[in-house]
Amino acid sequence: RYFWSGVEMGPPDNIFGLVEAFKNSTHPNKVNLAMGAYRDEYGNPYVLNCIKKAEKIILDRNLDKEYAGMSGFADFCADAAKLTFGEDSPGLSDGRIATVQSISGTGSLYLASTFFAKFYPHKVVYHSNQTWGNHAQVFKSAGLEANTYTYYDKSTCGLNADGMLKDLRELPSGSIILLHASAHNPTGVDPTQQQWRDIGKVLKEKGHLPFIDMAYQGFATGDLDRDAFAVRLLEREGLQPVVTQSCAKNLGLYGERTGALHVVTASKEEKDRVMSQIKILIRPTYSNPPIHGARLAVEVWRNKDLYKEWLAELKIMSGRISDMRKALQLGLETNTNRKWPHITRQIGMFCYSGLETDQVTLLREEHAIFMTKDGRISMVSLSNNNIEYVVNCISKLLI
Ligand code: PLP
Question: Which residue range or ranges hold the Aminotransferase class I/classII large domain (predicted)?
Fold first, then answer.
């Protein structure tokens, strides 16, 4: 049989490829700092207690496994939209936000991209000059082009706000602008609230379409409202953002593939049209979304005790990340005679360390410390068990 003899071996995925290499390593102290999935202080995967309890409640209900419908569970969509835009959202009270349940953040980004490819006149998505490694692949695979605007300033390990605003001003009017709602991946650099206002002003002046990826609501600061500031600001400014929402990180539902896509439209009638077309895109691809994660999310969101416990667990997770940032900064400053202020200035799951590619390679080859080649450290993978080892190995490289 020669059906596939012409198929060439493809390159491994940047992140999942590293995870594979990590699994294969026999080094006794190996550390995986590449993967963005929360770990507890002992380095173990963490299932939220509110989710474990929701799971029991749902099991006891003896529910069926019928299809959810193309747009998913109505309760899930309603709650996800409220969590994203806030109870007092003008779009929600007017009934002009189209929401569908999606296959987590990635599925939502892909669905939005196919919608743009079919219905939006501009076919380029502009993203920050560093962004999550999968963004451009998703856009291209949906038939769009991907291009960049200035964002990260290497000299300060912070935001180049002037450069960003300048680029946004110079792009063709009506461009699709991808923004990270909070906890920018990979840089950990978020605009301040004032900078978001400035960004909103330019987006409005230029008639750009804000395409907001919200993968870390509540996971950045531990506060759901604060992490949704940008989305809510832009919506209240009348900008009609398209928002992709993931429940992977904040509810720990990684493998359950739970999320939503929200398209703010101009009227209820427009929303109905948009909704009908999104369903037409869903039907031939995955037909309808997975039900288990959505049921769990709704249980946590609607059960007062579980909701309270969720808020507390968000604080625990974001607090542990913040403790690890302090420990990493202190360790490196003690051992290298350099200042590392950006480690605690950055926010969210990742630290953009400033380590160069050759240093990252040495860490992997000599010490079995795995991270992406841009020097991004997954803070959630650091724990009391491995931080000393990581600090010592990085310090050895630098002195
Ligand atoms: N967007 C960003 C910025 C991310 O970091 C991630 C996950 O790492 C996602 C989207 C999508 O994640 P998922 O598809 O697991 O919800």
Answer: 29-392
Pocket of ligand 1 (CB under 6 A): 36, 104-106, 132, 180, 185, 213, 215, 246, 248, 254, 259
d(CA 286, CA 107): 10
Active site residue 13: no
**Residue 249 is a catalytic residue:** yes
Return the DSSP state at 379.
G
Helix, strand, coil % (nearest 5) of the chain?
50, 15, 40
Bridge partners for 125 per DSSP: 146, 176
pTM given for the model: 0.95
For residue 382, the one-letter residue type is L
Beta-sheet pairing, 376-378 with 350-352: antiparallel
Q: Give the pLDDT confidence of 256-282 residue by residue, as tens digits.
A: 999 999 999 999 999 999 999 999 999
When mean pLDDT is compared across 73-77, 94-98, 144-148, 360-364, the lowest value belongs to: 360-364
Which residue has a Cα nearest atom 4 of ligand 1?
A: 215
Provide φ and ψ at 152, rounded to 5°: -85, 135
Query: Is 118 part of the annotated catalytic residue set?
Result: no
